[in-house]
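Why does residue order matter? Because the sequence determines the fold. Keep that principle in mind as you read this record.
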Amino acid sequence: MTVLGVAALIIVAWLCIIAFRRSLRPVRTGLLECLRFLCALIVVGLLWQPEWHTEVEPSRQPEIVILRDGSASMTTSDAKLPQPFDPREKIVSRAELANQILESEFWKPLEAEGQNKILLEEFSLPPAAEDPALLTVRGTDINAALMSALDTHPDLRAGILLSDGDWNEGDPPVTAAQMFRQRGIPLFSIALGSETRLPDLDLRDVSAPTYGIVGENVQIPFTIDSSLNRDVRTIVRIRDENGIERTKDITIPAQSTYYDAILWRLNKEGSTTLDLSIPFANGELVEKNNKRKFTISGRQENIRVLVIETLPRWEFRFIRNALSRDPGVDLDCLLLHPQLGPGDGPDYIQEFPEKLEDLQQYDVIFLGDIGVGQDQLTEKQAKLLKGLVENQASGIVFIPGPAGNQFTLPIGEDGLGSLIPVVLDDNKKIGISEGTASPLDLTTEGRSSLLTMLGDTEEDNPLVWRSLPGFFWHAPVIRAKSGAQVLAVHANRRNQNGRIPLLVTSAAGNGKVLYLGMDSAWRWRRGVEDLYHYRFWGQVARWMSYQRNMAAGKRVRLYFNPERPKPGDIVTLNANAFEKNGAPLEEGTVIIDLTAPNGTSQRFELTRSDAAWGSFSGRFKVSAPGAWNIKARTTDDADSTIETTLLAQGTRLEKTGHPARPDVLQELASVTRGRVITADQLPELLAEIQTLPEPRSLIKPLSLWSDWRLAAALIALLSFFWIGRKLNGTF
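Structure:
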């Protein structure tokens, strides 16, 4: 760059000399060519990026800033009080040790005779009022604290950091440490806390559903982290504000993460605050993370169910009885008998609901031993059922029979048969019969599923399933399809793919699918009447219709995923909108009014995803924890508004009981040429700070090549040169 600049100046100087010699007005031309060379000299100089340095001498008393970490992780009790503070060297929290250090006034010698000015600052303090249901705590931003100290204290001589080094917000602290190094300011860190994790049980996560049905069980999944070096046999307790509680015995493996769920029966409508907790275990040192609070809404619900069958086999008869007697179910049955025609009587309809406004009312479809053919379903009707599941979040239950009619369901892209979550053997369409009864055996997923919860408690449930009467016929299942969840398998038969799956669930678009590969659930009544049989099918109906009924109005039905997002998650909103006559909305769209926890609002329209079904979808990002209010309405009717609340579960950034991070503090000290010490080394720290040189003069560089004043001067000179040339050519 230097060589090019010099060469350019030589060329410009040569051109200036030539112009001067040829000019008839040597005085004027000489002045103009000097101005030209000056402009070229300025331009070349700017290309070399010159700087103007201003030296600022310290005008005030040298300052030493003490930065105290006030984050929640400092409440961890794993710091040892050294002998100068306590001869017993007892264990206290990191915050208590920091307080002891500050109360000892170790910095007083540094202030003697006005040598230095001591400044105490705290950073990353938690919010004054925290909502325990959100589990949110402000994180630790060490980098911001260091940068703030540099910006607000120009006469800084040294920095002292009292922290555990556990940062989780902002830029890496080493960024600020490099700024300390450039200004010649050392950073001394007093490491607080233990490098190894404390013995602890941490109830880390509770993933409750948004709502539940009054009088029914809901499943509350939870996660526990254990850092104990032994298995812990304990109980998990869930309690409401009235003191009603349920408990469950669990065993938490040593040094592992434990996943489980507990059942809770909702007894009232409206919002209920629940408290989930585990006892303080022997050897555990942190108690405050053994409890979590959350809310769940209870509601009464009327589920619309359609049962479609050909022959009135026992399974059909008892499913019809179970659902018709369920006060929360509104049942319609379509019996397409091949010889007698459609069935008649209470709860029966005479024909398939061909209109979308009639079909879309059903939350769950039970499809028995029926397929596509004469006196059964048409291909159009089968396609409608598939669209109902995928586009309107309805559920469908496949219950095959020995006639093998379900093999005639289309399996193409638009075929209803493609929703069946298992692969069937086409060579055995009539199924497999056995001379002795075989029971179902729950899988690991089945033992924790709400669908298979037949006992009053989770401990009783395995005993109930083992006592159920078996079946003599099952469908020719080869294996479950990819992505399906197997809840129960044949207890006595297996093939090349393993044990035969007979109770399988899967997702299909926005809806759910359940496949029961045997037709003897009605036999579960033996000796207990309707206890388990009614309970099972009632749970199936509610589980299949859950998402569809998150927020349902007359004109708009709204559902979202995930139910309990965390900040940073993308929430997908799905809506079904209808005309006033119940038909899918053809004109217009769905408007969403979204209100964040801080009160800010935004409005946006959902995108039409399937015009035939009035299906709309959209997305938004959860930026903060708390209650997000969602209002949805159609553009043609302001009275169609429905409203629901989405609770965003915050992530606890600050972890109590986790080990300190002295490696972070060591890196900061190394970069700034400081030092990491422990609490009992304070005298050494004082001696080292007292030997530090006075704060250096502060050099403030000014980049001339980017200064607007120099650019303006250059433009002015070029303007004079251009005007001068015009005048020189005129006179």
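The chain has five domains: 2-55+702-730, 63-196+659-696, 201-294, 303-549, 551-648.
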